[in-house]
TrEMBL record:
One Pfam family here: Acetyltransf_1
UniProt domain N-acetyltransferase: residue ranges: 17-67
Keyword terms: Transferase
Superkingdom classification of source: Bacteria
Stated name of the protein: GNAT family N-acetyltransferase
Molecular-function annotations in GO: acyltransferase activity, transferring groups other than amino-acyl groups
InterPro entries, per database record: Acyl_CoA_acyltransferase, GNAT_dom
Organism: Staphylococcus pseudintermedius
């Protein structure tokens, strides 16, 4: 699973992931095949200058074998 959890040379540890997911404006998604995690995405809801909210997708990671 380590190869999935490395994004732009950032390694995500469990405590930081728990803090991220406990933030109500943060979202994380995983992609699975046969109960194996093959990818992930993380995103945020942000307040725009016009007062509306937007969904900001920051990063998507996928194992190389599944990118085609």
């Amino acid at each position: 699973m380590e190869e999935v959890l490395i994004d732009d040379n950032m390694v995500f540890d469990i405590d930081n992931l728990k803090g991220f997911l406990n933030d109500t404006s943060s979202f994380g998604f995983i992609a699975k095949e046969n109960n194996k995690i093959i990818g992930f995405a993380y995103c945020y809801t942000l307040l725009r200058p016009d007062g509306k909210t937007m969904f900001y997708l920051h990063s998507i990671g996928m194992l190389p074998n599944y990118q085609d």
